[in-house]
Amino acid sequence: MKVSIYRKNKVNFPEGKFVEYEVPFEQGMTILDILVYVQKTLDATLAFRYECRQGICGTCGVMLNGKPVLSCQTQIESNIENIIEPLANFPVERDLIVDLKSVLEKFAGIKPYLEKTDRPIKTKQEADASKPFRKCIECGCCIAGRKLRTKNQEPRTLLDPMDLVKLARYVTDPRDAIDRIKIARENGVEYYTVEEGRELTRLCPRNIPIDEAIKILKEN
Amino acid sequence: MKDNFQTIKTDILVIGAGGAGLRAAVEVKESGHDVILLGKEVLGCAHTGMAMGGMNAAVAAPATPDFHFQITMEGGYFINNEKLVKAFTDEMPGRIKDLEDYGLIFDRKEDGEYYVWAGPKQKYPLNVCVGDYTGREMMQGLVDQARKLNVKYSDEFFISRLIKKNDTVIGAIGVNLKSGEFTVFGAKAVILATGGAGRMYEVTTNAASNTGDGYAMAMSIGVELVDMEMIQFHPTGMAFPASVRGVLVTEKVRAHGGILRNKDGERFMSKYYPKEMELAKRDEVSRSIYQEVSLGNGTKHNAVYLYVNHWKEGEIEDKIPDVFEQYKNTGVDIRREPMEIYPSMHHVMGGIKIDEWCKSSIGGLFACGEVAGGVHGANRLGGNSIAEGQVFGRRSAISAGKYADNLSQSQDISGTDVEGEIGRINTFLAEGEGIEPSEVEDKLKKTMWNKVGIFREGKALAEALEEIELLTKESHNMKTRVRGEKGRNRDLQDALETINMLKTAKSVVTAAILRTESRGAHSRLDYPETNPGWQKNIVVTESEDKIVTKTVPVVKL
Q1: Do residues A120 and A195 touch, judged by C-beta distance below 8 A?
Q2: What is the pLDDT of residues B206-231, one digit of tens each?
Q3: What is the chain A residue with the closest CA to B107?
Q4: Strands across the sheet containing A13-22
Q5: CATH topology for B415-553?
Q6: Cα–Cα separations (whole angstroms), residue B84 to B89, B303, B390, B534
């Protein structure tokens, strides 16, 4: 089976280009299997991240045929030519590795930590309210899944979907002391629609209700 | 070629950014010391995050810390260090509180009390959890806290050597995996929290970064390790397809009524442990599955079935959502079909010999988490690993802080040490013919899986040792296929990791040969009985490339 992989590195592919590789297909093969095969057998310079194979560490996100996915959890179909690219909307550091710096800097701006009051969790309901948002693994698939149709009108400080999930996580946690809605409002949550949230939820490997996050931040 | 390197000084260097390392770094920072945290993977992506079922703590009556102590000792076949187990079980409830301060919310019952489930041996439930992704939520909380406190960190950074002077650790040197540049860290104290070594086995639940770096680096400077023969195989790893072989299926499945059957539908645990059935200890269930498949009663993928399709509607999605997803992604709907599972190498019970304040046998070096040994004895109870990392992560920080307070500054690291390590790394990048690192690694994985596995036997262990010696010789001739570039050079990382895995493997096999009995995870076909005379620990050290062993009495309270 033929696979096209985006390559970019200083020595061999300074401009960035797609390279086609011939990879033997095996039933149940994932994108990660392909990448490991290529690095081991065809081109030792191929760079990509992976750790857990369990879909939980969040480090192996790539685009498969234009869709952001975790490479370890995504089995490949052999009857089409598969195209593997780095996550969209991130600067590419090298091959399939993206630079996380700018996203994490913005993330830091929303105070992505609990500012805890003395109020305890009193019921199961309270514990469960934030649970869907606490499943985020910071894999970046939601960021890569955004179509930046309105990029020109969007403010520079516009939050990423991952940031909205984190903010909603604290809004629904009765222990938190920070005005998260204010942070969301000051950083362009109005540019998101619930419909876009729904689209992004479909892409999220952890099935996080990003639409609900947007609703919570816009309507509260 | 002379390589440039930068030198950074700090009070306390924490190597490894999993649950224990992060907990240590947070504690160091909160105590007002200067800290640098280093991890091989992107911050937050360490193996701790793969822990699923939960963590043990006596937070709900009738469980008490004494009960937790007692079953941990029983589970470990009474060769655990009692002082470590005592500190662990006494302090666990406090660490659960810390984690909730960092943002976690453990699952609750309707009345707001913790939802606590009972793992093997838990007459009184001890396991608090967040769904079946407890480790990941724990990592998130710890990372959030580290970010809140502005802990200095460098991720995708590989420490390759500890630096020792006058029998004291004074820093470390390593390579930035992104750029290939070297950095020397001078520190008053070093905390090692590098995790386990699953990757030296062909089938493992472990993340790619678990290559025994800490064991190997410690051995290289003469630090004592303990209980290295004790390797845990988790009974339930995914068996098929190849891409997920070994991936963890949490014990929570069996604890909530998951049923094991062989290919003929027989509930085979009744033959091996009729009383405990699926909730026998991990070593016991793993051996049962191994034997069942060896008898020819396995599936076509040499596995057995694990059923949850009898659970009440919605319970699968509620209790084990990630297991549900893991199988769904391979085309199996566990609400209707059974899982295929087989044991998978899971945990190194042994490690750096520490006292209850995480001091190693050498000054300035502290250890916590899986890289340290002694808490779990011959078999670890489920839910005790990510738990103890919290207790000893904190303790190592307090201990290292006190040690650092007695020093006015970190010592200078000699140019010879630095050049020696840079020279060693550069040999893998030099021109000329050589062997590919992954070739050596693949052979080691097979040796360990086939000869140092669930069941062991003197002859196979001796062969394994010989093969490891041979591979170690070959490893000196490893060459990366990428020569010009050091940054993002996977072959270079593989080479350094393979050396560490070989060294770790050698300590495991050497200790396994010495222990001529069966105890816990160490099952010798040629010595099937547990011998009370062996209720002691094996300590290994390296001296001039030779492994030296001795036995020591179990540390009592």
Answers
A1: no
A2: 999 999 999 999 999 999 999 999 99
A3: A127
A4: A13-22, A2-9, A82-85, A61-64, A67-70
A5: Methane Monooxygenase Hydroxylase; Chain G, domain 1 (1.20.58)
A6: 9, 36, 13, 20
Residue in B95, B161, B254, B282 annotated catalytic: B282
Closest CB to A123 among B110, B131, B244 = B110
**Is the CB of B102 less than 8 angstroms away from the CB of A93?**
no
In angstroms, the CA A174 to CA A122 distance is 9
A122 contacts B329? CB cut-off 8 A? no
Fold topology of B239-343: Flavocytochrome C3; Chain A, domain 1 (3.90.700)
Alpha helices in B278-337 (DSSP H): 282-292, 315-319, 321-328
Q: How sure is the predictor about B1, in pLDDT bands with cuts at 50, 70 and 90?
A: very low
Q: B22 with B139: CB under 8 angstroms?
A: yes
Cis ω before A24 (30° cut-off from 0): no
A75 to B208: CB separation less than 8 angstroms, yes or no: no
Question: How far apart, in Å, are the Cα atoms of A87 and each of A65, A143, B403?
Answer: 11, 8, 45
Which pLDDT value is given to residue A152? 60
Give yes or no for residue A150 having a pLDDT over 70.
Answer: no
Interior/surface letters A83-103, b for 16+ CB within 10 angstroms, e for the rest? ebbbbbbbebbbbbbbebeeb
Question: Cα separation of A16 and A121, whole Å?
Answer: 51
Interface check for B113 against chain A (CB to CB < 8 A): the answer is no
In the stretch 439-498 of chain B, residues with CB closer than 8 A to chain A read 480-482, 484-485, 487-488, 490-491
Q: A2-98 architecture in CATH? A: Roll (3.10)
Nearest partner of B130 among B108, B112, B97, judged by Cα: B108
Inter-chain residue contact B147 with A114, CB threshold 8 Å: no
**Backbone conformation region of residue B77, classed left if phi is above 0, alpha if psi is from -120 to 50, else beta:** left
Q: Which amino acid does the sequence have at B369?
A: G
CA distance A87 to A96: 8
Measured between alpha carbons, how far is A211 from B298 in angstroms, rounded to an integer? 45
Residues forming beta bridges with residue B165, ordered by sequence position: B168
Which of A28, A116, A173 faces B101 most closely, judged by CB atoms? A116
Contact A139, A205 (CB under 8 A): yes
Is there a contact between B133 and A56 if contact means CB atoms under 8 Å apart?
yes
Q: Specify the pTM.
A: 0.97
- Angle CA B48–B209–B127, to nearest 5: 15
Pick the closest to residue B504 from B204, B295, B288 (CA basis): B204
Same topology between domain B239-343 and domain B415-553 = no
Cβ-contact B418, B184 below 8 angstroms: yes
Q: Looking at the complex, report in whole angstroms how far the Cα of residue A1 sits from the nearest Cα belonging to chain B.
A: 17
| CA dist., res. A82 & res. A66, Å (int) | 10
* Nearest-10 Cα torsion for B527, B529, B531, B534: 50
**pLDDT, tens only, B435-480:** 999 999 999 999 999 999 999 999 999 999 999 999 999 999 999 9
Amino acid identity, position B501 = M
Spell out the domain ranges in chain B: 239-343, 415-553
Q: How far is A53 from chain B (nearest CA, A)?
A: 7
Q: What is the DSSP letter of B526?
A: T
Give the single-character DSSP code of B200. G
B160 membership: H or E segment, kind and range: strand B157-165
CA separation for the pair A170, A130 (Å, rounded): 7
Given CATH 3.30.497.10, say whether it is the number of domain A101-219. no
Structural domain spans, chain A: 2-98, 101-219
Of A6, A14, A160, A162, whose CA–CA distance to A98 is shortest? A6
